[in-house]
Specification:
The chain is an all-alpha fold and 214 residues long. The chain has two domains: 6-108; 124-204, no CATH class. The protein contains seven helices and no strands.
Length: 214
């Protein structure tokens, strides 16, 4: 949907990438992992060094208040790390990676307790839907928080997007929630809260969101 490119979250989530590092770069936490070769599809050293760089960038953004206590950058980072690791089954020593990343995180955010890099190992079969609920919930949140969002240019996009998300929420609620309540409960609560708040916000701005509140 075109409006997503204007959301503040689009900018900072674009930080989540693998980054090159200098051969002279050293970090104790990352140095526990061997450096990969060109043939390696799973290079945990490069991943660790990239997350280190991402932490430094997020810290800078936090200092300028681009983030707030309600932003979910840490959860999105966890999804990104998980996607990288699971793109190839040859990744080993993964549990140690998560231990070291959470230790590394404390060096950048000693007072920030809302961030824990999760492995999602206990929800693997449900992860795709959890991630989808999370990402839409974040979009709802940032629709309200993004400054200078040209709302009136995206009337049709907003209407169609909210219809799609309304359908997704009800499908998960009917098909999956009763069977896997503990897996989806928090995601659905956040989705519902942010959906309703964003829907109300857009209606107040003159956008005709035709779907009901959740």
């Amino acid at each position: 949907y075109p409006f997503m490119y204007e959301l503040t979250s689009y900018y900072y989530y674009s930080l989540f990438n693998l980054y090159p590092y200098e051969e002279s770069d050293y970090h104790w936490y990352c140095n526990l992992f061997s450096k990969g070769s060109d043939s390696d599809k799973c290079d945990l050293y490069s991943l660790c060094m990239s997350v280190r760089y991402i932490f430094s960038q997020v810290k800078e953004l936090l200092s300028h208040e681009y983030f707030d206590s309600d932003s979910k950058w840490c959860e999105q980072l966890s999804y990104w790390i998980h996607s990288y690791i699971n793109s190839d089954k040859s990744c080993g020593n993964v549990n140690e990676l998560y231990i070291q990343l959470n230790r590394l995180k404390k060096g950048y955010f000693p007072l920030y307790n809302n961030c824990n890099i999760e492995s999602f190992e206990n929800v693997e079969e449900d992860l795709k839907k959890k991630k989808e609920l999370f990402l839409h919930s974040e979009n709802f949140y940032w629709i309200q928080k993004t400054n200078n969002l040209n709302i009136n240019s995206y009337n049709t996009s907003f209407v169609n997007y909210f219809k799609e998300c309304f359908k997704l929420y009800n499908n998960v609620l009917k098909q999956d929630f009763c069977k896997r309540k503990t897996v989806y409960e928090t995601d659905l609560i956040n989705f519902q809260r942010n959906y309703n708040a964003a829907s109300k916000y857009l209606r107040e701005k003159g956008i005709d969101i035709s779907t009901d509140e959740l």
